[in-house]
């Protein structure tokens, strides 16, 4: 992994612990992007003549990476646009279960549209809280982040699979933006009905790209009947009227989605299982170090497994102090968010711990 750090110029002068805010641009991706625009420069409209084949290949790459069918992959500029499109096709009388303090792109999107909402608490027993809430409130939809953006609490995937088997009529919609790219994942075996992701964090795809994965026939359930009826009565090309077209309206950007495809292939070359193993080691080490310094909330300490996102005790003054030492983090919620990717090392965590120790 250390050799791969040379791909990321930011790391030469900084200890970058902020992937949860933005993944990094790297040298070979920059080369791809420059070549892409050069081809556009000299080809003009000829460059776009094969765009349908190009985007079909992007869908196939996404499907292969996440264990889905490419016919069930929808391309979207980001998770939020895809999620709001989903909600616009759902009956507002449906009851939606949310996690309290989950990402605003989920919670505000749901509450602002007038859905009947209920909540489960995010703490050390979040899985039990979710099941209790489903039993009590009997929601039609459960919308949630797989990994919480503030403190990094991650919902157990085996639990979700078992929960879906127990409540097959509840529609599971997951935001995986803080998850995809951190470990191997098989969407078809997950129990999740719809999974969405923006590509600019752990997938290293840059901004302006994302995707939604749908289980078989789910698109039919979330498409308004008026849309389906109107599409059946027209002779327009399916690219304007299909169920996917509601999400992919207008021109998609070959630059952005090409960047996502390039990065998925980049991660594949490293090996997602190797990335997962490295990140598990980093997570365990970071949790141990932060525990020694009494920096973690009780809910995280009680969890057996954790993601690579941590929220440590601290304020704006400490955040600026870290920045002066070229340690890049984010202020989030009650403290300072630390987030790790495969380009991070134990030495990065040691440097952070040393600075924190001296600051205290």
From TrEMBL:
Keywords: Pyridoxal phosphate. Coiled coil: none annotated. It comes from the Bacteria. The keyword Nuclease does not apply. Residues 55-352 form the Aminotransferase class V domain. The keyword ATP-binding does not apply. PANTHER family: BLR3095 PROTEIN (PTHR43586:SF15), CYSTEINE DESULFURASE (PTHR43586). This is Aminotransferase class V domain-containing protein. The lineage of its organism: Bacteria, Pseudomonadati, Bacteroidota, Flavobacteriia, Flavobacteriales.
């Amino acid at each position: 992994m250390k050799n791969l750090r040379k791909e990321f110029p930011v790391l030469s002068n900084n200890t970058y612990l902020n992937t949860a805010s933005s993944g990094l641009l790297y040298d070979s991706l920059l080369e791809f992007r420059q070549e892409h625009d050069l081809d556009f420069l000299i080809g003009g409209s000829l460059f776009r003549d094969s765009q349908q084949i190009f985007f079909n290949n992007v869908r196939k790459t996404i499907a292969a990476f996440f264990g889905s069918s490419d016919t069930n992959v929808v391309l979207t500029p980001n998770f939020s646009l895809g999620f709001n499109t989903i909600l616009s096709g759902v009956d507002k009388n449906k009851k939606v279960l949310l996690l309290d303090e989950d990402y605003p792109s989920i919670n505000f999107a749901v509450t602002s549209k007038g859905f009947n909402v209920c909540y489960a608490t995010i703490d050390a027993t979040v899985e039990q809280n979710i099941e209790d809430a489903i039993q009590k409130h009997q929601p039609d939809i459960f919308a949630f982040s797989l990994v919480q953006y503030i403190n990094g609490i991650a919902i157990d995937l085996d639990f979700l699979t078992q929960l879906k088997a127990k409540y097959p009529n509840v529609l599971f919609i997951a935001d995986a933006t803080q998850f995809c790219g951190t470990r191997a994942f098989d969407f078809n075996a997950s129990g999740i009905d719809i999974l969405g992701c923006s590509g600019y964090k752990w997938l290293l795809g840059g901004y302006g790209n994302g995707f939604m994965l749908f289980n078989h026939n789910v698109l039919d359930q979330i498409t308004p009947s008026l849309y389906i009826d109107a599409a059946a009565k027209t002779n327009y090309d399916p690219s304007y009227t299909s169920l996917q077209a509601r999400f992919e309206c207008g021109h998609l950007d070959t630059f952005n989605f090409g960047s996502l495809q390039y990065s998925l292939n980049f991660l594949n070359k490293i090996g997602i299982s190797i990335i997962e193993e490295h990140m598990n080691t980093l997570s365990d080490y970071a949790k141990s170090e932060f525990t020694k310094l009494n920096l973690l909330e009780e809910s995280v300490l009680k969890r057996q497994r954790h993601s690579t996102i941590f929220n440590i005790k601290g304020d704006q003054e400490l955040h600026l102090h870290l920045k002066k030492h070229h340690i890049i983090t984010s202020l989030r919620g009650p403290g300072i968010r630390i987030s790790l990717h495969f380009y991070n090392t134990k030495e990065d965590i040691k440097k952070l711990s040393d600075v924190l120790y001296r600051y205290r």
